[in-house]
Every structure is written in structure tokens, then in C-alpha cells.
Amino acid sequence: MGQNKKYFFQALGPLLALIFWFIIDLDKNNHQVSLMAGVAVWMCTWWFSEAVSLAVTALVPVLMLPVLGISDCKTVSQQYTDSIVFLFIGGFMLAFAIEKWHLHKRIALKILTIVGTKPSTILFGVMISTYLISNWISNTATTMMLFGAVFALVHETKEYIHKNAGKFAAALLLGLAFSATIGGMATPVGTPPNMYFFKAYKEAFPLANDLTFFKWSAIGYPISLMFLVMTFFVLNFYFIRNKVELKIHKEFFINSYNKLGKFSWEEKWVFGIFISCILMWLTRADIDFGSFKFKGWNHIFIVPKYVDDAFVALLAALILFLVPSKANRGQALLIWDDAKKLRYDIILMFGSGFALAYGFEVTGLSNWLAASLTVLKGVSPVLIILGICIIVTIISEFASNIASIQLAIPVMIALQKDLDVAPLMLMMPATFAASLGFMLPVATAANTIVFGTKEIHIKDMLRVGIVLDVIGILLITFMCYLYLG
After folding, report:
1. Distances in Å between the alpha carbon of 182 and those of 133, 154, 231, 393?
2. pLDDT digits 0-9 by tens, 65-113
3. CB 160, CB 115: distance < 8 Å
4. Does residue 405 form part of some domain?
5. Which of 282, 312, 339 is the last residue of a domain?
6. What is this structure's pTM?
7. What is the DSSP secondary-structure string of 348-400?
8. What's the N-to-C CA distance of the chain in angstroms?
9. Are residues 47 and 89 in the same domain?
10. I want to staple 404 with a disulfide (CB 3.0 to 4.6 A). Which of 280, 434, 471, 480 is the partner?
11. Is 188 helix (H, G, I), strand (E, B) or coil?
């Protein structure tokens, strides 16, 4: 970006905010709605244009929310230390250990010996693996789990790509993040919004018995599988097709893997901790299969819900700092110098996403967006579902997926009485749409993690993301109307 263009967008962000603060009044009874909209527009302008570092943009909420009287500095600052931030920290400590002892290279080479050497098949291999794991654990934990291996794939293939190596890297990393998000749609336990919806639906309609694990999956799997395939074609078309050439034979990867030899003491320990971490993520919470309920190990603690995925990641990190290394006498598998590579700009970006979500909630901006759905009264059910999906998707681009559904579900319950339609026809599309959010790095934790590699340009994420948001909205609308209409 040229210097003059950069200065233009640096000025445009706060200027647009001022227009919302002093000229546009979205809600005459609550001016804070316009104040928060101004902050969101300011941040979006800087994010989209990259006029300043994304980490600098992340500081806007903690500066402006207190100034505008939306919240005090202490409360806004607390949003920057959400437990997901510690999941990110613990997960990256594990990734550092995997990288330090070259386990990531072993995993990457093994994947390449299976999926082959065509860029498109490598991308699909990453996406289907991520999707299947994310059916059962959160998209954030899945992304953290596979990040080291996928990043190693990028580096193992980079020197053999004769053109557009950066595009291939972006395709793999976005494929990882997007597949983790899409995989969560398939089952009730795949993502927190689904679990929240189940609880909220049973509380609001205690006499209804039309929602089970298998009913959700009967809709969730077709939607998510079709969406996964469409996402693969979009990523392949945008980044890979006729752009990326990987000139290497599969035997090279087989030979490279064999040259690694046997697992070292350190690799065995890191691999054991890694697998244990995955198993603990999978079995931490209860899983309700309808006919029977799997009881999670978090029930061994006094208050089970206090122990989340971040606990598992931090426990794994702590063990890495304690287990001694044989290769480096007197040191552990991981030392603090290894952890200094942690990306604090990404931590700030995480925090700004939670701060934005908090601002949307306390000012009523999310409710204002959701309340706009009342104009749908009397229209066709398919248009009602479409409207719900559009509004919830817009909210989910700025707020976390769980915050989006927490805001949307009460509105859906109220709308159901006004519109006189089946509750599931409103609530299920809203829950699916809460998992959309592919345009911005802060839309989901998975997006933020892969964006932190600096291998992805924000303009590419925006262009691909808006196409996927539109595909997701149309797919959810069509399938929910088909199944629930």
C-alpha cells in the first residue's frame, strides 16, 4: 500500500466512527448502539485496509469503550484475558515442543506419504482430517491440535513449489481453520453454540421432544459435508488451480520419512503428551447421544464446568516444562527461551474480538441487529430463515460464535411467538449461522490462529470469506427449509 493511501485509511477509520457518533442515530432510545457501531466500523476499516498493524487495531476497544462511556477500562481489559487466550498460549507451547524436537516434520511427511504430491489432494487431506476431528471437539482445540503438522507441511513443500508458494501456504492454513469451523456444525457437541442451543431449547420448550442428537446430525452432517466440499473447491480455485506447481515424487517423502529413523526419547514424550491432550479434549465434557450419555472426566472436580479446554492445554504445557530432556542435560523438553516465540500481537487480536463482542452485548447493538428481523413477520418461511442467517452471520463476524448464539436465541424465542412458526425452524438455522464467520481474523479463534502465521493476506481472507459466508447462508437456508419446513 502506498504511503498516501495508508494515511487516507488511517484517517478514514476514526472519521467514519465520528459520523456514527454525531450524525447517524441507529436507535433513538439508546445512543450507545450508534457509539458501538462507530467503534466497529472504525476497526473494520483498519482491518480491511491494513492501514495499521492488526495488533494496533486491537487496542481500539480498550481505548474507546471507556472514553465513550460504554464500559470502564478494567472491565474491557478483562475481555483480553478470556480462557480461550490461555488455550491459545498452552496450545502454542505444545506446538513449540513439537517443532523443537522435529515431531512436526515426522507428522507432515507421514501425511504427504498418504495423500500424495498434488497440491489439491494435500489440501483435501488436511481439510477432511480436520473436519472429522472437529465433529467431536471445539474448532479452536482442533486447529491448535493440527496447526503444527499443517505448518510443517507448508515448510516441507515450500522449496519444491516453483511458483506461488505463498498461495499454497494460505490455502492449507485457511483450509485448516475453515474445516475446523465447518466440522463443528455436524454434531451437537462439535461447537459450543450447538450445545448452548440444546440447553436453551429444552429450557424454553420443556414439553417438546423433537430434538435429539441424531435429529441434529441428520441435518448437520449433510449441511457440513456439502459446505466442506464447496469450501475445498473455492480454496482450490482461488489459491491453487493453475497457480501452484509442486514438482516432486511421492517416493521422496517416503524416503525422507524413513531417514528420520526411530523416535527419540524427547519425541516419544512430546508425542505422548500430544495424544493425551487430544484424548483429554475429546473426553472432558459430557456427550449426550440421546439414548445414552457419556460422562466426562471433568466431573472428578468440585465444579466440573470450571475446567475447560484451556485447562487441558495449560496442563500439557506445564508437563513439557517439567519432563527432563536426555539430549539437553539439565533442561526440560521445553524451556522458557522456547516460549519467547509466542505471538503477543495475536493474543491482542484475540482479546479485541472478545472486547468487541462484549461491546455489542452491553450497548444493545447485537439486539438492535437481531430486532431488525421483526420485519419478516408475514413473509415466506424460506425468507424468514434467510433473514435470520444473514443477521446472525453479520453478528458472528464481529462476536465469538458462542456470544452470537447467546444473543440470537432469546430473539428467536420471542420471534417464534410473533411469527407463529415451529421453534426449530428459527433456532436451528440461527445456530448453524453462528458458526459462519470466514471474512475476518477475529471472527473465530481458528481464523486468528492461522492468520498469526503471516502467511495469509487479509484481502485474500476477505475475498474467500465473503464467498463462503454467502454459500453458507444459502446452504443453511435451503437445507433447514427442506428438513424443517
Report:
1. 11, 22, 9, 14
2. 999 999 999 999 988 887 777 877 887 788 788 878 877 777 767 777 7
3. no
4. no
5. 339
6. 0.71
7. HHHHHHHHHHHHHHHHTHHHHHHHGGGGGTTS-HHHHHHHHHHHHHHHHHHS-
8. 49
9. no
10. 434
11. coil
CB distance 104 to 154 below 8 Å: no
Same domain, 132 and 244: yes
96, 339 Cβ separation under 8 angstroms:
yes
Do 290 and 331 belong to one domain? yes
Taking Cα atoms as reference points, which of 124, 99, 149, 112 lies closest to residue 255? 112
pLDDT > 70: what percent of the chain? 92
42 shares its domain with 99: no
| Whether residue 228 sits in one domain with residue 119 | yes
pLDDT tens-digit series, residues 202-260: 777 777 666 777 778 889 999 999 999 999 999 999 988 877 777 666 777 777 777 77
User: Other C-beta atoms within 10 Å of 225: how many?
Assistant: 16
CA distance 442 to 82: 14
Q: Domain containing 20: what range?
A: 1-52
Q: Are residues 37 and 112 in the same domain?
A: no
The answer to whether the CB of 65 falls within 8 A of the CB of 352 is no
Nearest CA-CA partner of 421 in 392, 381, 382, 391: 381
Of 318, 339, 360, which closes a domain?
Answer: 339
Do both 128 and 88 map to the same domain? Answer: yes
How far apart CA 289 and CA 302 sit, in angstroms, is 25
Residue 89, in any domain of the structure: yes
More confident residue, 179 or 156: 179
Query: Would you say residue 367 lies in a domain?
Result: no
Tell whether 245 is covered by a domain. Answer: yes
- The pLDDT score that the predictor gives to residue 156 is 74
C-alpha cell at 134: 472437529
How far is CA 224 from each of CA 60, 184, 288, 441, 481, rounded to the nearest angstrom? 35, 8, 20, 21, 16
Mention every residue, 6+ apart, whose C-beta is less than 8 A from residue 183.
130, 131, 132, 133, 134, 135, 139, 142, 190, 224, 228
Q: How many CA atoms lie within 13 A of 2 on its CB side?
A: 3
Mapping DSSP to helix (H, G, I), strand (E, B) and coil, where does residue 2 land?
A: coil
- Whether the Cβ atoms of residue 350 and residue 81 lie closer than 8 Å to each other: no
Closest CA relative to residue 13, chosen from 36, 64, 47, 56: 47
**Packing angle, helices 213-235 and 165-183, rounded to 10:** 170
Beta bridge partners of 332: 324
Would you list the DSSP string of 230-278?
A: HHHHHHIIIIITTT--B---HHHHHHHHHHT-SPPHHHHHHHHHHHHHH
Rounded to the nearest 5 degrees, what angle is found at the Cα of 193, between the Cα atoms of 444 and 382?
100
Task: Residue 224: count other Cβ atoms within 10 Å of its Cβ.
Answer: 27
Residues 12 and 132 in one domain: no
